Amino acid sequence: MPDNYNYLYELSDPRHVVPMYEHNGEEIFVIDGHIHMWDASEQNIIHRGGEEFIQCFYDYHTAFTPADRVWDLDTEYRTMTPERTTRDLFENAAVDMAIFQPTYLTDFYETGFNTVERIAEVVADHPDRFVLNGMFDPRDGEEGMAYLEELHEAHELQGVKVYTAEWRGESKGWRLDSDESFEFLQKCVDLGIKNVHAHKGPTIRPLNRDAFDVADVDDAASSFPDLNFVVEHVGLPRLDDFCWIATQEPNVYGGIAVAAPFARTRPRKFSEMMSELLFWIGEDRILFGSDYGIWEPAWLVEAVMESELTPEDRAEYGVEWDLDAKRKVMGENAAELYDIDIDAKRRAFQNDNISDQFDLGAHYGANDPAAAD
Questions:
Q1: What secondary structure letter does DSSP report for 93?
Q2: pLDDT at position 366, please?
């Protein structure tokens, strides 16, 4: 591990801390709703877009991350391993569970960027800690439909991630409300896949901003009321558009990955964004996500949990960002969508392999060892 990877401490080090977040003495069960495990190594890049993409991610990383936690691009950022990912998320972070959202980008990366196949290994090692989502791209036609079925059969999918701005040959994107997309959404209904996570947020070089427009969520959500549409990044920079759509579609949720780091660097902007979300869709339809490995939850969870609305926003919007709301956003809402029994997980985590590895059993309620005679 590089020398400057200084926030990861050996368990014997007195700086080691237990990761489940506590706020004013209250334990918060955190489900990170948006994580990746990518390979942007130079040998995996086959198109200039691959290098531009990871460089853009790194720009986001350095712009929001505390200076003492910035990772080196080439030695720490380009590639995430299973060991690194579990350590970043669970040892010194405030995360109890996490949901993988795949991103393929096979025109940019020879083996893909963040594929189900790449992620599946770490999920298999820690099945109680991770949720693995699948994907579809309607441009893949019958082959893509068969692949979605294969993924569901192999992993019992509860959700999929869609990336409407991905380049594919001459195509530079697709729409969630297209006839072809509706065929895949119907397949999700038929298979019992109920959660559709759509990247609808800031553009990432070299992808096109308009291909991430949130507008196509409207008809899709209306046409498939049995599906839950989680709009990742809450449509930024089109937050208003997202809110006006989501307020009339009860099956549309907002994932605050990308919005979350504003809690540290631009707290008044974060207050404004959260006030809009709480006003329009309420605390029951907002989900926390760190967007790991763009950022790490070790500092991001604390930034969000310690954030407050400004007095002006509280007065204008008439909403509260209190402990009950934070508890829902940080984990309970994701648990509801993914049928996660938080109490049962706490019991299971007393002696699972993550708790054994990082000495977390006591935090989840395991009995303290008897005192020596």
A1: S
A2: 60
Cβ–Cβ contacts within 10 Å for residue 328, how many? 20
Whether this model's pTM surpasses 0.90: yes
Q: Is 200 helix (H, G, I), strand (E, B) or coil?
A: coil
Q: DSSP assignment of 248-310, as one string?
A: T-TTEEEE-TTTTTHHHH-HHHHHHHHHHHHHHT-GGGEE----BTSS-HHHHHHHHHT----
Determine, yes or no, domain membership for 362.
no
Phi, psi of 305, rounded to the nearest 5 degrees = -65, -30
Return d(Cα 259, Cα 322) in angstroms, integer. Answer: 18
Q: What letter represents residue 169's amino acid?
A: G
| 233 and 199 Cβ atoms separated by less than 8 Å | yes
Report the alpha-carbon distance of residue 360 to residue 109 in Å, rounded. Answer: 37
Divide the 373 residues of the chain into consecutive groups of 10 and give the mean pLDDT of each group.
34 39 75 98 98 98 96 96 95 86 98 97 96 98 98 98 97 98 98 98 93 97 98 97 97 98 98 98 98 95 96 98 97 98 94 90 63 36
How far CA 305 is from CA of 90, 179, 367, in Å, comes to 17, 41, 28
Domain count, the chain: 2
Own/partner long-range contacts of 151-154 (Cβ < 8 Å, ≥24 apart): 151/116, 152/191, 152/193, 154/120
Residue 73 belongs to some domain of the structure = yes
Cβ–Cβ contacts within 10 Å for residue 335, how many? 16
The Cα–Cα gap between 141 and 129 comes to: 33
Residue 288 shares a structural domain with residue 185 = no
Specify the CATH number for the domain of residue 162.
3.20.20.140
- 193 with 251, same domain: the answer is yes
Name the 3-class secondary structure at 242: helix
Question: Using CA atoms in the order 141, 145, 256, 121, what is the torsion angle rounded to 10 degrees?
Answer: -120
| Residue the block writes with tokens 């209306």 | 222
Q: Look up residue 288 and give its two tokens.
A: 């926390």
Residue 137 CA to residue 180 CA, distance in Å, equals 9
Given the structure tokens 């380009």, which residue do they identify?
78
